[in-house]
Amino acid sequence: MKKRISYIIGIATILLFLAGIKIHSSQQPLAQEIPTVVSPMKDTKNTEAIDEREFRATWISTVYNLDWPSEKGLTKEEQQEEFIALLDELKSTGLNTVIVQIKPSADSFYPSEYSPWSEYLTGIQGKDPGYDPLDFMIKATHQRDMEFHAWFNPYRISVKDSIDGLTVNHIARENPSWVVPYGGRLYYNPGIPEVRKFVVDSIMEVVRNYDIDGVHLDDYFYPYPVKGLDFPDEDLYRSSKRNSMETKEEWRRNNINEFIEDLYTSIKSEKRQVKFGISPFAVWRNQDIDPLGSKTKAGVTSYDSLYADTMLWVEKGWLDYIAPQIYWYFGYPAAPYEVVLKWWTDLIQDKNIHLYVGHAAYKVQSSNDPWGNPYEILNQIDYNRNTQNVKGSIFFRAKSLVDNPLSLKENLKTTLYKEPALVPEMPWLKEIEEIIE
Hints:
Blueprint: H1 2-18, E1 55-60, H2 76-93, E2 97-103, H3 119-122, H4 133-143, E3 147-152, E4 156-158, H5 171-174, E5 179-182, E6 185-188, H6 193-209, E7 214-217, H7 234-240, H8 248-270, E8 275-278, H9 302-305, H10 310-316, E9 321-322, H11 337-347, E10 354-359, H12 376-385, E11 390-395, H13 398-402, H14 408-414, H15 428-431
Parallel strand pairs: 1-2, 1-11, 2-3, 3-7, 7-8, 8-9, 9-10, 10-11
Antiparallel strand pairs: 4-6, 5-6
Helix pairs in contact: 2-4, 6-8
């Protein structure tokens, strides 16, 4: 009898699959389920008529020439052709936004008063590529009805450990006291008020001069810790702490908090409609350290390791969106996807802040762990859609997506992203009467 029942259930499941019906519980992750759901958007090619909105984005990394340009020293025409081809590929996959790294270090992909031209364009830092790549990219993106978010790395000066590789008139050379060598790289010191102002001003240069849709920061504030090596700012801490009771950890967090608040208010004062978003490391704190934290056992946390108090930023409303990098699979022992996501959805409840999820497309590959399941990320997106407060996804990174690992790109195109979507609206961008009192 049990075999007969199982046989009947199996036949019924196959028939439902062929009929395009998706059966699942919205409370359970779909880690082993092959998704057959089709996006519930209207069957139309007129995107203006689509009611459903979902943020669908990818990071385009320029550092090390990871995504674009493919190598240093390409001609203007070659760079532009590559970017257009990449955009068209992303658009055809169903994406509606690109987040482009225009300041991978203390350099720029546009003519700047604050930074030299990036070496990832010409191969030589400070060398003019002969056109304005940022202006070109924004126009090409908008021509395809996609949003362009400008991605900045605020404090990294160089991925090398020597100041000799910087241009002779680099601001870091002119202000060597701003520079901190750590872990084989160079950083601006976030504890110096002049540094924080300089970084804000350098970002505002882009906000003022370009038609960007958003300003985006990722998870780099204080650098990821190197085992056994503290960030060397003890003397600065002792001379500049705000009061005698402020610990070094609190001082570092307050340095970043002041930067985030200043940047947010600066953006909104200049162009209220420009969105401000951050994509932090996904675990704020572990619950065994702080009862307000998540039920995780992460070895690194944004609060304790990177001095980024992401919870505070959400509570203060200093962001328009937050996109935690939940680069783990369902049931991952240290930080299960579903557990981390639940913490974030609870945090933004009733806040004028959108929650987007950073997905680890770069981890998708043939393997014996769950990343070898071609439907892991699709199941995460489907789970998001059945979870309150999640407004979309960002994939790290563009090449990892378009290379189509385990058919990820094709699966998105034919199922969850089969129909186009508009970017979610942010009503508060129009409703705010006054940002600065």
